[in-house]
Task: structure prediction
Amino acid sequence: MSEPRYLIPGATGDWEVVLGLEVHAQVLSTAKLFSGASTDFGAQPNSQVALLDAGLPGTLPVINRKCVEQAIRTGLGLKAQINEWSRFDRKNYFYPDLPLGYQISQFAHPIVGEGEIDVEVEEGEWIKVGIERLHLEQDAGKSIHDLDPASTYVDLNRAGVALMEIVSKPHMRSPAAAAAFVRTLREILRSLGTCGGDMEKGQMRADVNVSVCKPGQYEKFRETDDFSHLGTRCELKNLNSMRFIQQAIEYEARRQIEIIEDGGKVDQETRLFDTVKGETRSMRSKEEAHDYRYFPDPDLLPLVLDPAWIKEIQESLPELPNEKRERFEKDYGLSAYDAAVLTSDTDRGRYYEAVVETGADPKLAANWVNNELYGRLNKEDVDIADSPVSAAQIGGVIKLITDGTISSKAAKDVFEILWEKGGDPAEIVEREGLKQVSDTGELEAIVDKIIAENPEQAEQVKEKPKAMGWFVGQVMKASGGKANPQAVNEILRKKLGL
Amino acid sequence: MSKLIEFTLTEALEGLEKGEFTARELTQTHLDAIGAAAPLNAFITDTSERALSMADASDERRKKGEAGLIEGAPIAVKDLFCTVGARTAAASNILGEFDPPYESTITANLWKEGGVMIGKVNMDEFAMGSSNEHSRYGPVVSPWRRDGKNDKLVPGGSSGGSAAAVSADLCLGAPGTDTGGSIRQPAAFTGIVGVKPTYGLCSRFGVVAFASSLDHPGPLAKTVEDSAILLRSMAGHDKNDSTSLDVEIPDYAAAVGRSVKGLKVGVPAEYQVDGMPDEIRDLWNQGVEWLKEAGAECVDVSLPHTKYALPAYYIVAPAEASSNLARYDGMRYGARVEKDGLVPTYEATRGEGFGAEVQRRVLIGTYVLSAGYYDAYYLKAQKVRQRILQDFRDTFENVDVLLTPATPSAAFGFGERDADPIQMYLNDIFTVTANLAGVPAISVPAGLDNQGLPLGLQLIAPALGEETMFAAAGALEKAANFSAKPKRWWESA
Result:
């Protein structure tokens, strides 16, 4: 568990960056947190709005049990403390996309407490990131400012949708680590089935707390848990892609270093990242920060969880990416790299296991999924879920390789045909005449003929055994590329007396 | 026919059952009486057409033998309850002509039991007030007058319209809401019965919120038995209200005639406050005697934190109100005062939409929840609330009910308490404790003061102790034999 140091050179020497994240993940649930309205994405504006979501008088929140279950499941997946007693508070502020005038959230008593996850920043470079807490809260509606020059439109479809806010400890020290944390978190949530993880659809977004300090300070902070060893932080709001997360941090860290080196002080504030200009700009200062007047929501009773229910959820937990990676290494004899790549995405891992289940060699299967299949999927920009080639078909191709029916080269041709036209791998080999010749008698005849036609080379090869490659080439050519190279090698060695 | 309006709910239900008159006749008579009672300013939204069609439907049901608990009874609805197709404005300008597309659980339950919606009645804006002087519709005038005087008196508040309507025989019962005394105080001022049940017994769904943890819907009625029948018709578990209790609703009316022999009645020392008129003290002592004569045992008890209840209440209630009323921003429904830009629009809408008393409480609530003040005010008030609850729990280990005065005075005149909000808030001194603790309480008319105005006594019972409360209230009612009625001066006005 070591991390390469990310140093930013400044006029006064090197600087380090310290990062903590708040990830908002939309709970995978068909209904909102308190109103029962649908959460389908892409519906007509204001078509999924219950009375409560519009803040009508006398309407009351009733907790959606499914959302609570999802939060517990996520907490368990993050190896975090599940709080059997938690409470909803009101966060009060005025905005047109917040119909109640407050957001129902968990401020003082979150449903999930401290946890920890392992994050792979670069290949083989692992860090542990502490989870501070996870709480449930409502999303706001959407304000649309660009439909009309004079008006703002409001769509309340998202208002009241359940979010999990997952707060990390400031345990990340490079833009890559922050992005890796979000990626890892997303994979965990997707494996658990508690969040779709699609950042483009707003299912996940991150706020990043950035501060800079001189080397050595972070270690002091970790020893003492005293934040005064770290620099003043700024919060970068609403970053919705891995790329923006990294760009925003890089820009912000440099901005802070410049201020300090120019003799200034970093102001604690909330900043927005301008994705077009690649800059962060001030949204509101600490002085301008809202006084949210948090207090316990009197419309809701405290959330009291039955330990038996938590246990039941624990027992139904699926295998998580890290557990799966370790199992892949152990059970399938894969390299750490292959295992990590295959488990980096739930669907990829599932596809791979389906290939292996057909009886295909696990290592070959890893190569085929990671290289051939993904090479092609990426090139054509196709999602694995829509892959034209099925796991069973890939398994079939691999079996034909391992039993010597086709060469690796011919296998690629089969894959090409499967991608374009589909079909059964064995039938394709038969139809296209891609079967390699392993028949010893047939091959011996070709070898004998070539040796007889090239007596000089046959003599020379005895001196220089490496030159046998020339003969292999001749035999392959004579067989029309269908000869089994292994068999050809063996026969040549015997006939040439090597 | 005008005799019909003098019936109690129980009497009217008997008459309907015997076929002596129909729900339509009963309803029409009440509508006529309402028409003649405009000077009271109790009724603010006319639903007479609906009342008549509901009455006809009720007569049909009764014919088929499908009568509900209050089949055919005209019921007046406080403007705080959402009623489909009938303006619901909480007596506030900010709600404009808001016409809710949903029905409150309380009114839905009443209609299911055969109630007839006779009209919507006036109240203090957002249920904030003790005199019904704070309303967009103007103040409600009490049906009562001091002997030989014509000064307008307040009916109490915030359910002032409901109390006036019941007291003036304009309906047979009315659901109100009680956040700090808003059912019991106007009931006491107008010589009727008011019940604030256990928190969670009556659903808050569809009731425009004032202070969620203190708001209690409950009935105002002519007699204890009527109030018991109405409570049974209103109460019950509601999945739309997370704080609703999932309990069986007993036949409260059956408890009303029950003997109180051996019942232990606590008389709390702390309700003896400075400046309380002698006649209220005397009436309280009289109440003790009445209950003793009926076989109860009366003992002195102490609830030491009572004196902190009113200050704690005036922190918790405005705090919740400041948040509950944030939704009235002019964006989606109700009134909007359009200005240039969002914040000016908010300010103008809320500045013009809310009356002075509502604004005062929103300001107090915002203040006590603010960073730096939260611990000193809101958190402290919540701790006081816990102590008050504990006082009740401890006391109810030893006694079955508590007997106290309902109010520190009889009804007062218009504008008499308006100058000083604190004087107005002191009206709630005997009633807020039960709201803070969530325990049931009832106000029973027990006598007249020396100016001929009604005075009430209050019984407080432990949580879900409604049956004991009704039994004791029944005994008190029987002994007091309160039969005074307001003179119907408004009919000739």
About this structure: Chain B is about 35% helix and 10% strand. The mean pLDDT of chain B is 96. The interface with chain A takes residues 81-82, 88, 90, 95, 98, 100-102, 104, 204-209, 211-213, 239-243, 319-320, 322-323, 325-327, 329, 331-333, 342, 346, 366, 369-371, 374, 378 of chain B (CB under 8 Å).
